[in-house]
Amino acid sequence: MIFNGKGLKCPLAFVKAKQYLIKNNSKEFMFDDEISLYNFTSYLDNQNIIYQSQSLCDCVKVKLADDSSIK
After folding, report:
1. How far apart are CA 31 and CA 62, in angstroms?
2. How far apart are alpha carbons 46 and 59 in whole angstroms?
3. Residues 6+ apart with CB under 8 A from 71
């Protein structure tokens, strides 16, 4: 399941993305809010979760590595 946070601002986008990560084991996230993106990728870094980010025309997509485990 892909989390689409486009149109949501922080803290709502960050909170919902984290819920999708933990409850739904989502591996792809889309953000158009820079603060939410920063907070979410900082959270992933702190949890040692490997990810890649890709800039698209209207947002940034964050994709977790296949072997990433949620702690």
Report:
1. 8
2. 23
3. 47, 48
Per cent of the chain over pLDDT 90 is 90
Task: Give the residue ranges of DSSP H helices in 1-71.
Answer: 12-23, 34-46
DSSP class of 48: T
Nearest-angstrom CA–CA distance, 38 and 56: 16
Ordered domains of the chain (ranges, CATH): 2-64 (3.30.110.40)
**Cα(20)–Cα(10) distance, integer angstroms:** 15
pLDDT at 70: 65
Q: What is the pLDDT of residues 49-69, one digit of tens each?
A: 999 999 999 999 999 998 776
What pTM, to 2 d.p., does this model score? 0.92
